[in-house]
Amino acid sequence: MKALILGEPGEIHLDEVAEPVPTDGEVLIAVDAAGVCGTDRHIVAGDLGVPPGTVPGHEIAGTILETTHGVEGWHPGDRVAAFGQVTCGVCPACTSGRSNRCRRPQIVGMARQGGFAERIALPTSSLISLPDEVPDGIGAIASDAIATPFHALTTVGRLEVGETVVIIGAGGLGVHAVQLARLCGAARVVAVDPSEAARDAAMVAGADETFDPGSTDEPARDLRRLAHGATLALECVGRSETVEMGMSILSPGGRLVVVGVGHTQPKLPPLGMFIGAELSVHGSFGSTPSEISTVLGLISSGRLDVSRSVQREVPLARAAEIFSQPFGPARTVVIPEERAS
Question: Residues 277-293: pLDDT tens digits?
């Protein structure tokens, strides 16, 4: 089959590889759509240490082609979205319904071959039923670009009706966080991003106000004034300065949820203020299969409109070109050759 294969850092190319052979408890899936995430760009750049020869791609929607011994409840022809990890199923996190925290995960597209290919094999524990009302491209990106901020806002951030929410970073995760914060009852949503295009996208998604941190010499101070009363902040960038900004703008009792992944070490506020104001900082990673299913239900029912979230569809044969092109808030989705117009 054809697949995109990692080369040396900065290089990815189309090649012929062996078709995956599903083992007991797995299914073979025809990939109908695979979203291109910011993480995929870091993988191709060599930032995450993924070895050459790997097929990236963890945002996947497809159709089951074959089942194996031990598979129950799934059949050829079923449309599915994929959970981006293959988890152990036996650690405390997995057995308590928090499989995004699995202690021994295989990340799809990193430790296990991913979805920038014609077919992929996955265990049934990584499958989520894809409603007929949800297009393939939306089903693919829902597993990460939409479900990740949903998990961060609701499960980790415990968003309450009437809160002021600040979203730092209005890219693929942040722009969906704006929509979800409004859907979940936020009274006011402020989106922060240096990109004018990202700020414009955030306004279209429902932000009440946007803020350009490059427009002032003291962005934390000015954002604090703009977002007066903020009790929940979501950081989607992964840099020390944006994490510290998020902590600095919180009102007493406020929570900062860090979704952005990076390698720097931010500082806490002075302990007197941090403790006296009862501030809290949480990490948030991915989502669970049940949360992905919830997000798909919101989309299929029409409650969550993400029809603008897929910017373009690119056939697999030309998908390597994506990684040398600008990256905006809307997703690019890789599709099979036969579906390309």
Answer: 899 999 999 999 999 99
